[in-house]
């Protein structure tokens, strides 16, 4: 018996309920950790900076010596040495002393402020200071950036270049991350040929396979290209069996109601438990989701429609959240509201994902317009889009000026 079509929220809940298991942990070199998902908290073993240092070039001084300093009545101090990054001053300034200091240089014990060089004049071992200072001015205190014992980065975060800089400053050179989920990608259909081939009349080049491969790489998964399966049960079964060895299997095509849509028939025969087939969304209504295996060896199966835009929308809305759940990621898609610039017609109870271009009006108001054609076969519209405009099930036609929800791509 065919499964009833379900709402988007129900479909996503079913997927996430079957995706909440932690993948194994591995350790990778710091320089190779970019984009990986942190598997354990990073606890600072030391203060950063380790000791007070200067935020600018100038002179380390005692603020109390400069309470009367002004441009008209500069205060004269004796320069007794210099502190630069990597070259410390070992003495202790007495009242009336100053130490020349460079950005990053350690502030000598006894000094409690730094005056910028622009507010001074130095000659013959004497510096004239033309303004007063408050205690602590232009001094980076020990632990100002990171305090020893604090959690610097929480698990579940995708590692950024900034994170790598923090890890390096703490001496963390091997990083615990989640193993990338392996994703098998299988394109189906007699009409599909490899991108380097010239298709015969009625044929098309495989655009969805390479696009899904790139999409998996972008979200931190490890894609495996399973090639193209013809509309032949035996060939399809062989390819599907290979894909079911991985954490996730993605198929494109073969899940609609056509005479040659075999994927939806072969998957259950191989032991896949189909959880839903058909979601009230546009594009991508025929999407299928199932599971095979148990507990730690569960394979998530997504039957994505063959139209390229439907495939990528389905990937973003269903596959990407599953990958994030498998990795324990804490990041969420970035969504905001923007003023619609053109009309979007909608007369059904589906959730629509409309390709859009997010911009800004001269006053800074966020604006969004559609990419033009919303045909599910127009891959160029995905290339032009930088966001998806989301119209929920209850929405009707959206006119210019309407505030709509957008999700950044």
Describe the fold and architecture.
By secondary structure, this protein is of the alpha/beta class. The protein folds into four domains: 8-23 and 180-327, Molybdenum Cofactor Biosythetic Enzyme, Chain A (3-Layer(aba) Sandwich); 26-47 and 153-178, Molybdopterin biosynthesis moea protein, domain 2 (Alpha-Beta Complex); 53-140, Beta Complex (Molybdopterin biosynthesis moeA protein, domain 3), CATH 2.170.190; 335-408, Beta-clip (Beta Barrel), CATH 2.40.340. It is built from seven helices and 26 strands. The strands form seven sheets. Strands 7-4-6-5-9-8 form a six-stranded mixed beta sheet, with no helix packed on it. The chain starts with 7 loop residues before the first helix and ends with a strand. The mean pLDDT is 93.
Just name the CATH architecture of the largest domain: 3-Layer(aba) Sandwich
Identify low-pLDDT runs: none
Q: Kindly provide the name of the CATH class of the largest domain.
A: Alpha Beta
Quaternary state reads single chain
Looking at this protein, list some descriptive labels.
six-stranded mixed β-sheet, 7 helices, 4 domains, Molybdopterin biosynthesis moeA protein, domain 3, 18% helix, Molybdenum Cofactor Biosythetic Enzyme, Chain A, 409 residues
